[in-house]
Amino acid sequence: MKKLLTFIGLALISNSLYSQGSPDYGSGLKLNLNQQGDKYVRFILWDQFWLRNTEMNPGSMVGGEATNNSWNVGNRRLRALAYAQITKRYMILAHFGINNQTFLNGGANGTSGTGGYGNGKKPQMFFHDAWNEYAVLMPGEAGKFSLTLGAGLHYYMGLSRMTMASTLNFLTVDSPIFSWPLIDNSDQFGRQLGFFAKGKYGKLEYRLSLNKPFATDLTPANTTDPARAVAVDNNGNPKFSKAGYFEYQFLDEEANTLPFKVGSYLGTKKVFNVGAGFYHQADGTKTSVNSNIEKHDITLFAVDAFADIPLGDAKNKMAVSAYAGYYNYNFGPNYVRNLGTMNIASPDPNFAGDKAIAGAGNLQPMIGTGNVIYAQAGLLLPSQAEKPKVRIQPFAAYTRKSFEAFDKPSSQFDVGANWFIDGHHAKITTQYSTRPVYTNPTEAPKSKGEFIVQFQIYL
């Protein structure tokens, strides 16, 4: 009976991960398979829709027309997740959906032009996660120690809290992206195929994984000067990757039923955690010097801290949320990946000025060999109403990147607010962000801006 009650308690805790700030949500879309409620299927559905204005990098075109500014709308995420707990030890999970569909791109492979399968239409759904797991040692069976083993396409990718962030309860409008350092190269939208172990020892939570990265085959540009060699993703027959994250939870303990780390609890928990993680894959990239191919390991480290703490008189329902992390990335010499979320632009071949090194639209040097410092903080403003119509949470974030490929570091910031209608379940987020624009690798970057309004619903 004690074990059963412990399990039911953990199931209820896992539900709270998806109900920050909404007293009416309860256990959500949950189908009990027995009267005790310890056998069930849980469903989670969500949509994040963006309205955005972007200052384009120099030399950009949208739909064949040269422009330096453009409005855009799109589905940032449209997802469904289900997991089933059939016995107290065994769970299976599936998570599928689409990302980044705009009026111009993000459609199914081969969609272009005009018509039923034109630009941006009929995007292909795919699995983000698909794994099963078995609880070898449940809480209470071996003192403070618990252990669960799993296998499949999974999100237990180590490195940092942000690397395993939930997309449902970000503090800012979205992830800073660099915290998914392999995104859609040697992973599938932040996931790899492999095995994982997770559990706790008292207030210490651990996550470890052994994975087979997806194959990459980019061809390195040949150079005669070793100092100018640029590593690219080419792992041939990939060697296994190893990843882990360890986090000490000083105050309230967080649930680890699912891998998704909460971005803001809105004062429903009192949390202060410090963590450290790593990711390593041997021979993950290659360079070419005088036509001689050299392989390089991918070695990534991070340390971070997270706090979400109620403030002042409980009747005011105030809370502060904060995160800070240091990331050290080594992908090989001069490695850089230029990325831009839902980028709708293409290069303008007739542009005569200094073009952005990253490319057109909102591309920026997002990931690279070097160091990244990131910090964010938000304040949930007071409200004494039992069920306020809107709760407001202003926030700000700062990113500093020092990449080997550039002589000068870059700084960028985000500032905005969450407008909660029903906690994270129904919210509008407004955010203004800057990004660095390098036109010369030896000079300090200029800056461009982007304004985003996100409409989010999840059940």
How would you characterize the overall build of this protein?
This is Porin. It comes from Chryseobacterium oryctis. This protein has one domain (2-458): Porin (Beta Barrel), CATH 2.40.160.10. The chain is mainly β and 459 residues long. It has one helix and 24 strands. It starts with a helix and ends with a strand. The chain has a 16-stranded antiparallel beta barrel with strand order 2-5-6-7-8-9-10-13-14-15-16-20-21-22-23-24. A three-stranded antiparallel β-sheet has the order 4-3-18, with no helix packed on it. The protein is globular. The longest helix has 15 residues, at 2-16. The chain has one helix at 2-16, and strands spanning 29-32, 40-55, 60-62, 65-66, 69-85, 90-102, 126-142, 145-154, 192-201, 204-212, 222-223, 232-233, 241-249, 271-289, 292-311, 318-330, 336-339, 346-347, 364-368, 370-380, 391-403, 410-422, 426-437, 446-458.
